[in-house]
Amino acid sequence: MISSLYKALTRRIFKLAYKVYEKKLWNEIKGGPIPAHVGLILDGNRRWARKIGLNHALGHEAGFEKLKEVLRWCWELGVKTVTIYAFSTENFRRSKDEVEHLMKLAERGFKEVLANEDIHKNKVQVRAIGRVDLLPDFVKKAIEEAEAATKSYDRHRLNVAIAYGGRAEIVDAAKRIAYEVQEGKLKPDEIDEEVFEQRLYTSGDPDPDLIIRTSGEERLSGFLLWQSAYSELCFLDVYWPDIRKIDLWRAIRTYQRRQRRFGL
């Protein structure tokens, strides 16, 4: 009896302390600059699942549900563009069962866009970036439908990096330029950084101001290699399914406290 009362009291105290800290944190960041473009590396789903005795599929399911919540937090903050690292070209090397599950999850995610109230209320334009031709037809069809349904939206943008690799993106941009030179549409001395950026998958978007990676790993793993030259990087020691609103807000606070010089 005493033990259960103690546990209940502890939970209430923890919940109250969390709310107090959340309010304090919000007061710290609400008047500061909010990054226009945030990149998210959704890392740690499998390790989260292993930690609590679940299989990797359930870890990915939990990560999928958490993504919807985090995107809502980003839009509430006023973040204009979010780019998520959903599936890399290297991820195709994982087991057949895991890849198939991830492809079905991707299909479900893009299909859910059609009826997602948050997407339509916030006027979020959705697009897939990467070597989309490598994806199964059923995923490509779902992507086409999601992109078509949101193409007129202009308040926010959600880039889903799928079958994506930063090196592959740079190679593909270089190939496009090479073809244009070969066809006489572009002269070699006209090639500069702006021309190159226009051939990237993210053409039309500003470079990310802030890139957040969960799971405690401190590397980009090929995510937005060209675009991240002056991005602020924040590595969170929490698995993706466990990320809380205060973790996102703390990353925003870290961003606000840094002095961005852009090489000056």
Q: Could you name the CATH class of the domain at 34-164 and 208-257?
A: Alpha Beta
Mean pLDDT: 95
SS-based class: alpha/beta
Strand content: 5-15%
The CATH superfamily of the domain at 34-164 and 208-257 appears as Decaprenyl diphosphate synthase-like
Query: What's the total number of strands?
Result: 6
| Order of strands, widest sheet | 3-4-2-1-5-6
Q: Which CATH architecture of the domain at 34-164 and 208-257 is right?
A: 3-Layer(aba) Sandwich
What fold name stands as the CATH topology of the domain at 34-164 and 208-257? Undecaprenyl pyrophosphate synthetase
SSE arrangement, N to C: HEHHEHHEHEHHEEH
Binding site for substrate: 44-48, 60, 88-90, 92, 94, 213, 219-221
Protein name: Tritrans,polycis-undecaprenyl-diphosphate synthase (geranylgeranyl-diphosphate specific)
InterPro entries: UPP_synth-like (IPR001441), UPP_synth-like_CS (IPR018520), UPP_synth-like_sf (IPR036424)
Family: Belongs to the UPP synthase family.
